[in-house]
UniProtKB/TrEMBL annotation:
Protein name: Putative L-ascorbate oxidase
Domain Plastocyanin-like: 1-64, 144-280
A GO term for molecular function: copper ion binding
Ranges in coiled-coil conformation: none
Origin species: Cocos nucifera
Protein family according to the UniProt entry: Belongs to the multicopper oxidase family.
Pfam family, one: Cu-oxidase
């Protein structure tokens, strides 16, 4: 399988016999039909799970006289280093003429000064006798008023900025409507730290990010020496392997209230998410469209009137 594209980015055309694809991700591959004419297995199987689930299809040559036979091909199931090495080999093809982030070439992500580092650690815990999941010890709870409405109409008592720390606290998990303040057009480093035994997948609404580094064990400032600051792939969903970390760079150039969440849906529902409020003091329609006049209002926003343009 020759990899040619990852979520809109032309990649170096490396060849793989097996490719990891995680929740919320997509890749494009080319397969050359240059083998003897017969039927071949195509196999998809789960990774890092107690029970390995497998499904198969058949690649059929039009002049084949031989059906698929023999054992189903097995892929790597527990080798984290194998997956880390493959993920790091996904790199942007800088010689391709197709679109890529910042096609004008006015800046390069590896040359922009990072203004802030955010470290996020996921965890599982019992809170008030119920199973919950948390980020930096905060397990998210939905407010009675949508956050964007509360922010737009400046309604107090719905959320508070700074209700989640920039770094893991090691504290006992607790419930809160967690919102992190962020400044418009700042360049930020986010490190996802996973000390659990399952693969995590993270998604930030409204953004793509450059996946600059990942490794097993614990992240430290010295880990930056191994970052790819030249041709990292831009992605919308990022995997973090068991007992490992993944680092990304992101330009906060999209004003709004954006959800940062796990793609493990049960965990998201039970608190492994929060919101990033990217704010510009200009509050200009150049940076963010206003809420439509016919928007449905609820909670504490009921009865409010949308502000004129």
């Amino acid at each position: 399988m020759k990899l040619v594209e990852v979520e809109g980015t032309h990649t170096l055309q490396n060849t793989y016999s097996s490719i990891d694809v995680h929740i919320g991700q997509s890749v494009s591959i080319l397969v050359t039909a240059d083998q003897p004419p017969k039927d071949y297995y195509i196999t998809a199987s789960t990774r890092f799970t107690t029970t390995i689930l497998t499904t198969t299809a058949a690649l059929h040559y039009s002049n084949s006289r031989v059906k698929v036979s023999g054992p189903i091909p097995g892929g790597p199931t527990t080798q984290i280093d194998w997956s880390l090495n493959q993920a790091r080999s996904f790199r942007t093809n800088l010689t391709a003429s197709g679109p890529r982030p910042n096609p004008q070439g006015s800046y390069h992500y590896g040359m922009i000064p990072v203004t802030r580092t955010i470290r996020l650690a996921n965890s599982a815990a019992q809170v008030k006798g119920k199973q919950r999941y948390a980020v930096n010890s905060v397990s998210y709870v939905e407010p009675d008023t949508p956050l964007k409405l509360a922010d737009h109409f400046k309604i107090g008592g719905v959320f508070r900025l700074g209700s989640i720390s920039d770094n893991p606290t090691g504290a006992k998990a607790y419930l809160d409507t967690s919102v992190m303040a962020a400044d418009f057009r700042k360049f930020v480093e986010i490190v996802f730290e996973n000390k659990e035994s399952i693969v995590q997948s993270w998604h930030l609404d409204g953004y793509n990010v450059w996946v600059v580094g990942m490794d097993g064990g614990n992240w430290s400032p010295a880990s930056r020496k191994g970052y790819n600051l030249r041709d990292a792939v831009s992605r919308c969903t990022i995997q973090v392997y068991p007992r490992s970390w993944t680092a990304v760079y992101v330009m906060l150039d999209n004003v709004g209230m954006w959800n940062l969440r796990t793609e493990f849906w049960a965990r998201r529902y039970l608190g492994q998410q929060f919101y990033v409020r990217v704010y510009s003091p200009l509050e200009s329609i150049r940076d963010e469209y206003p809420i439509p006049k016919n928007a449905l209002l609820c909670g504490k926003a009921t009865g409010q009137h949308t502000r004129p343009l």
